[in-house]
UniProtKB/TrEMBL annotation:
Residues 1-29 are annotated as: Disordered. Residues 1-19 have a biased composition (Acidic residues). This is Asp23/Gls24 family envelope stress response protein. It comes from the Bacteria.
Length: 181
């Protein structure tokens, strides 16, 4: 069995240094074989770009809100997203055609940091504080990993508890949409 390694063969045997080369070293002998690859370590590295591309990257609050909502719904014990206090403002935004993120999640992005507020409905039978802590952890981890932003704060509000057999309650706007079909 042969082992490919980067060594400075001359330094080991004679104490002198030469330019590092890739050489094939056998496990049974300590001395390098005469065959060596003529590829230096410096040329094996990735080429770096000397030009810097200028420009800004802006991530909309709604993008962070969607990622946070999906991360929240992944947590066991979360029945649904709750209704946030600004729901009346959200209904007005819908009527005017303004974009908005998922119900129960709001995010505030500033530079490369983000603060997220999440309102949840917990499932009956789960420890509410454990579920809320898991939501905080999962939202922070997912937003940080997917968007490359530093999460400075995740606030979780438990709005309700879903009882067994209880269906998701529809908002008046959703009920109107269903009635229209």
């Amino acid at each position: 069995m042969t082992d490919l390694s980067v060594e400075d063969a001359a330094e080991e045997t004679t104490g002198e240094t030469e330019s590092p080369e890739l050489s094939i070293v056998s496990e049974t002998t300590a001395a390098p074989r005469p065959f060596s690859l003529s590829m230096s370590v410096a040329s094996a590295q990735e080429p770096t770009s000397s030009a810097v591309v200028k420009g800004r990257i802006k991530v909309a609050d709604e993008v962070v809100e969607k990622v946070a909502a999906l991360a929240t719904l992944e947590v066991s014990g979360v029945a649904d997203l709750g209704e946030d206090p600004a729901e009346a403002i959200g209904a007005l935004r819908e009527r005017t055609g303004a974009r908005r993120g998922p119900q129960g999640v709001s995010a505030h992005v500033q530079d490369r940091t983000v603060a997220v507020d999440v309102t949840i409905v917990a499932e009956y039978g789960h420890a509410v504080m454990d579920v809320a802590n898991e939501v905080k952890t999962n939202v922070a981890r997912t937003v940080s990993r997917m968007l490359g932003m530093r999460v400075v704060e995740v606030n979780v509000t438990v709005d309700d508890v879903r009882l067994p057999g209880e269906n998701r309650q529809e908002s008046p706007a959703e009920a109107d949409e269903v009635a229209a079909f």
